[in-house]
Design a protein that fits this description.
The protein is built from nine helices and six strands. It is an alpha/beta fold. Helix 4 crosses helix 6. The chain is globular. The structure holds iron/sulfur cluster (2 copies).
Length: 235
Protein backbone atom coordinates (compact mmCIF):
# COMPACT_ATOMS: atom_id res chain seq x y z
CA UNK A 1 0.00 0.00 0.00
CA UNK A 2 1.27 3.44 -0.91
CA UNK A 3 2.06 5.67 2.06
CA UNK A 4 1.92 9.45 1.73
CA UNK A 5 1.66 12.15 4.34
CA UNK A 6 0.38 15.69 3.92
CA UNK A 7 3.09 18.33 4.11
CA UNK A 8 3.01 20.71 7.09
CA UNK A 9 0.62 23.61 6.44
CA UNK A 10 3.28 26.31 6.80
CA UNK A 11 5.44 24.62 4.17
CA UNK A 12 2.45 24.27 1.85
CA UNK A 13 1.23 27.86 2.26
CA UNK A 14 4.71 29.24 1.56
CA UNK A 15 4.71 27.58 -1.88
CA UNK A 16 2.06 30.01 -3.15
CA UNK A 17 3.82 33.28 -2.34
CA UNK A 18 3.14 35.80 -5.09
CA UNK A 19 0.47 33.65 -6.78
CA UNK A 20 -3.09 34.82 -7.44
CA UNK A 21 -4.65 31.37 -7.54
CA UNK A 22 -3.96 27.67 -7.75
CA UNK A 23 -5.96 24.69 -9.00
CA UNK A 24 -6.00 21.44 -7.04
CA UNK A 25 -5.49 18.19 -8.97
CA UNK A 26 -5.81 15.00 -6.95
CA UNK A 27 -5.18 11.34 -7.63
CA UNK A 28 -8.22 9.21 -6.90
CA UNK A 29 -6.18 6.01 -7.21
CA UNK A 30 -3.82 4.82 -4.51
CA UNK A 31 -3.97 7.84 -2.12
CA UNK A 32 -7.71 7.37 -1.62
CA UNK A 33 -7.05 3.86 -0.31
CA UNK A 34 -4.64 5.28 2.20
CA UNK A 35 -6.99 8.12 3.19
CA UNK A 36 -4.56 10.82 2.13
CA UNK A 37 -6.30 11.74 -1.12
CA UNK A 38 -9.93 10.93 -0.35
CA UNK A 39 -12.68 13.53 -0.64
CA UNK A 40 -12.67 14.46 3.06
CA UNK A 41 -8.87 14.94 3.09
CA UNK A 42 -9.02 17.11 -0.05
CA UNK A 43 -11.83 19.28 1.38
CA UNK A 44 -9.74 19.73 4.54
CA UNK A 45 -6.64 20.60 2.52
CA UNK A 46 -8.58 23.18 0.53
CA UNK A 47 -10.13 24.69 3.69
CA UNK A 48 -6.77 24.84 5.47
CA UNK A 49 -5.13 26.59 2.53
CA UNK A 50 -7.99 29.06 2.14
CA UNK A 51 -7.62 29.91 5.84
CA UNK A 52 -3.97 30.73 5.07
CA UNK A 53 -5.04 33.11 2.30
CA UNK A 54 -4.30 30.73 -0.60
CA UNK A 55 -6.84 31.14 -3.40
CA UNK A 56 -7.87 27.62 -4.47
CA UNK A 57 -9.81 28.13 -7.71
CA UNK A 58 -11.25 24.64 -7.88
CA UNK A 59 -10.31 21.00 -7.88
CA UNK A 60 -10.59 17.82 -9.86
CA UNK A 61 -9.75 14.19 -9.10
CA UNK A 62 -8.30 11.90 -11.74
CA UNK A 63 -8.17 8.13 -11.39
CA UNK A 64 -4.45 7.58 -11.91
CA UNK A 65 -2.22 10.61 -12.13
CA UNK A 66 0.71 8.44 -13.19
CA UNK A 67 -1.00 8.06 -16.59
CA UNK A 68 -0.02 11.22 -18.47
CA UNK A 69 -2.40 10.58 -21.37
CA UNK A 70 -5.30 10.36 -18.92
CA UNK A 71 -4.12 13.49 -17.09
CA UNK A 72 -4.02 15.47 -20.36
CA UNK A 73 -7.50 14.25 -21.36
CA UNK A 74 -9.08 15.04 -18.00
CA UNK A 75 -7.45 18.43 -17.60
CA UNK A 76 -8.82 19.42 -21.02
CA UNK A 77 -12.26 19.26 -19.43
CA UNK A 78 -11.32 21.94 -16.89
CA UNK A 79 -9.01 23.85 -19.19
CA UNK A 80 -10.42 27.28 -18.37
CA UNK A 81 -9.79 26.80 -14.64
CA UNK A 82 -6.32 25.38 -15.23
CA UNK A 83 -5.42 28.23 -17.56
CA UNK A 84 -6.57 30.86 -15.06
CA UNK A 85 -4.43 29.37 -12.26
CA UNK A 86 -0.83 30.40 -11.62
CA UNK A 87 0.02 26.87 -10.55
CA UNK A 88 -1.34 23.40 -9.92
CA UNK A 89 -1.33 21.91 -6.45
CA UNK A 90 -1.05 18.14 -6.83
CA UNK A 91 -2.24 15.68 -4.22
CA UNK A 92 -0.64 12.33 -5.04
CA UNK A 93 2.60 10.39 -4.77
CA UNK A 94 5.75 11.90 -6.29
CA UNK A 95 5.08 10.20 -9.62
CA UNK A 96 1.66 11.82 -10.01
CA UNK A 97 3.12 15.27 -9.32
CA UNK A 98 5.84 14.70 -11.92
CA UNK A 99 3.33 13.38 -14.47
CA UNK A 100 1.17 16.51 -14.08
CA UNK A 101 4.28 18.71 -14.34
CA UNK A 102 5.25 16.96 -17.57
CA UNK A 103 1.77 17.50 -19.00
CA UNK A 104 1.06 21.16 -18.16
CA UNK A 105 3.35 24.17 -18.61
CA UNK A 106 2.64 25.51 -15.13
CA UNK A 107 4.47 25.23 -11.81
CA UNK A 108 3.37 22.19 -9.81
CA UNK A 109 3.35 22.06 -6.01
CA UNK A 110 3.28 18.70 -4.20
CA UNK A 111 0.89 18.56 -1.24
CA UNK A 112 2.26 15.21 -0.05
CA UNK A 113 5.48 13.64 1.07
CA UNK A 114 5.83 10.14 -0.37
CA UNK A 115 7.16 7.63 2.13
CA UNK A 116 6.46 4.28 0.48
CA UNK A 117 5.30 3.27 -3.00
CA UNK A 118 4.21 -0.09 -1.65
CA UNK A 119 6.55 -2.04 -3.91
CA UNK A 120 5.56 -0.60 -7.30
CA UNK A 121 6.17 2.62 -9.22
CA UNK A 122 2.77 3.86 -10.28
CA UNK A 123 0.13 1.86 -12.09
CA UNK A 124 1.21 3.31 -15.44
CA UNK A 125 4.95 3.59 -14.97
CA UNK A 126 6.59 5.94 -17.45
CA UNK A 127 9.85 7.88 -17.15
CA UNK A 128 9.00 9.36 -13.76
CA UNK A 129 10.25 7.63 -10.62
CA UNK A 130 9.94 8.39 -6.92
CA UNK A 131 12.54 7.19 -4.42
CA UNK A 132 10.17 7.66 -1.47
CA UNK A 133 12.40 10.18 0.27
CA UNK A 134 9.62 11.37 2.62
CA UNK A 135 10.47 15.04 2.00
CA UNK A 136 9.27 15.88 -1.49
CA UNK A 137 11.25 18.69 -3.10
CA UNK A 138 9.40 18.78 -6.42
CA UNK A 139 8.22 22.31 -5.63
CA UNK A 140 11.82 23.51 -5.82
CA UNK A 141 12.85 21.44 -8.83
CA UNK A 142 10.16 22.20 -11.39
CA UNK A 143 8.28 18.95 -10.77
CA UNK A 144 11.26 16.78 -11.76
CA UNK A 145 12.70 14.54 -9.05
CA UNK A 146 16.41 15.19 -8.47
CA UNK A 147 16.81 11.92 -6.58
CA UNK A 148 15.73 9.77 -9.52
CA UNK A 149 16.48 11.92 -12.59
CA UNK A 150 20.07 12.70 -11.58
CA UNK A 151 22.42 9.69 -11.79
CA UNK A 152 24.14 10.84 -8.60
CA UNK A 153 20.88 11.87 -6.87
CA UNK A 154 22.34 15.33 -6.34
CA UNK A 155 20.03 17.64 -4.42
CA UNK A 156 21.73 20.99 -4.92
CA UNK A 157 22.32 21.30 -8.65
CA UNK A 158 24.38 19.89 -11.46
CA UNK A 159 27.69 18.13 -10.86
CA UNK A 160 29.15 20.17 -13.70
CA UNK A 161 29.95 17.11 -15.82
CA UNK A 162 26.95 17.34 -18.11
CA UNK A 163 27.92 17.23 -21.79
CA UNK A 164 25.58 19.02 -24.23
CA UNK A 165 22.68 18.42 -21.85
CA UNK A 166 23.43 14.73 -21.35
CA UNK A 167 24.57 13.01 -18.15
CA UNK A 168 28.22 12.53 -17.31
CA UNK A 169 27.51 9.03 -15.95
CA UNK A 170 25.07 7.75 -18.57
CA UNK A 171 25.98 9.63 -21.71
CA UNK A 172 22.86 8.69 -23.67
CA UNK A 173 20.35 10.05 -21.13
CA UNK A 174 19.52 13.69 -20.43
CA UNK A 175 21.11 15.31 -17.39
CA UNK A 176 18.39 15.54 -14.75
CA UNK A 177 19.60 18.92 -13.58
CA UNK A 178 19.56 20.31 -17.10
CA UNK A 179 15.93 19.17 -17.34
CA UNK A 180 15.18 20.81 -13.98
CA UNK A 181 16.84 24.06 -15.07
CA UNK A 182 14.94 24.14 -18.36
CA UNK A 183 11.59 23.42 -16.66
CA UNK A 184 12.14 26.12 -14.03
CA UNK A 185 13.12 28.58 -16.75
CA UNK A 186 10.04 27.73 -18.82
CA UNK A 187 7.71 28.26 -15.84
CA UNK A 188 9.44 31.46 -14.66
CA UNK A 189 10.72 29.95 -11.43
CA UNK A 190 14.51 29.98 -11.69
CA UNK A 191 14.57 31.72 -8.29
CA UNK A 192 13.73 28.32 -6.77
CA UNK A 193 17.34 27.28 -7.36
CA UNK A 194 18.44 29.57 -4.53
CA UNK A 195 16.19 27.68 -2.07
CA UNK A 196 17.44 24.14 -2.70
CA UNK A 197 17.99 21.89 0.31
CA UNK A 198 21.42 20.36 0.64
CA UNK A 199 20.31 17.43 2.74
CA UNK A 200 17.30 15.19 3.24
CA UNK A 201 16.23 13.90 6.61
CA UNK A 202 16.50 10.14 6.11
CA UNK A 203 14.36 9.55 9.18
CA UNK A 204 11.37 10.79 7.15
CA UNK A 205 11.68 7.74 4.86
CA UNK A 206 10.59 5.41 7.68
CA UNK A 207 6.96 4.29 7.61
CA UNK A 208 5.49 5.16 10.98
CA UNK A 209 3.75 2.40 12.97
CA UNK A 210 0.31 4.05 12.56
CA UNK A 211 0.66 3.87 8.76
CA UNK A 212 1.50 0.17 8.80
CA UNK A 213 -2.01 -1.00 7.99
CA UNK A 214 -3.37 -3.62 5.63
CA UNK A 215 -2.31 -7.09 4.57
CA UNK A 216 1.15 -6.07 3.26
CA UNK A 217 2.25 -4.76 6.62
CA UNK A 218 0.42 -7.51 8.51
CA UNK A 219 2.80 -10.06 6.98
CA UNK A 220 5.68 -8.39 8.82
CA UNK A 221 3.86 -8.77 12.12
CA UNK A 222 3.32 -12.52 11.92
CA UNK A 223 5.40 -14.29 14.54
CA UNK A 224 7.50 -17.03 12.85
CA UNK A 225 6.52 -20.58 13.83
CA UNK A 226 9.17 -22.20 16.08
CA UNK A 227 11.40 -24.69 14.24
CA UNK A 228 10.31 -28.32 14.91
CA UNK A 229 12.83 -29.95 17.22
CA UNK A 230 13.94 -33.64 16.97
CA UNK A 231 12.24 -35.82 19.55
CA UNK A 232 13.97 -35.95 22.92
CA UNK A 233 15.53 -32.52 22.47
CA UNK A 234 14.16 -29.66 24.55
CA UNK A 235 12.49 -26.89 22.47
S1 LIG B 1 11.57 14.40 -4.10
FE1 LIG B 1 11.53 12.66 -5.49
S2 LIG B 1 11.92 10.90 -4.15
FE2 LIG B 1 11.30 12.57 -2.83
S3 LIG B 1 9.04 12.28 -2.58
FE3 LIG B 1 9.40 13.76 -4.27
S4 LIG B 1 9.39 12.50 -6.12
FE4 LIG B 1 9.69 11.11 -4.40
S1 LIG C 1 25.47 15.12 -15.40
FE1 LIG C 1 23.51 15.79 -14.53
S2 LIG C 1 22.29 13.91 -14.18
FE2 LIG C 1 24.43 13.31 -14.54
S3 LIG C 1 25.27 13.09 -12.49
FE3 LIG C 1 25.77 15.19 -13.20
S4 LIG C 1 24.06 16.48 -12.49
FE4 LIG C 1 23.40 14.35 -12.29
Amino acid sequence: MIVTERKPLEELAAMFAGEKGTYLVACSGCPVGHKTGDEASLAQLEADLKAQGVNVLGRTSIDFLCNKALVALRLMKVLEDVQSADSLLVSSCGIGVQAVGATVDKPVHPSMNTISMGGFQGLWPSEERCAQCGDCSLDLTGGICPVTFCSKSLLNGSCGGSDKGNCEVHKDVPCGWTLIYERLKKTGRLDQLSKLNLLKNRDLMRVKPEARKGSVWALELIEPEPEPQPEGKPA
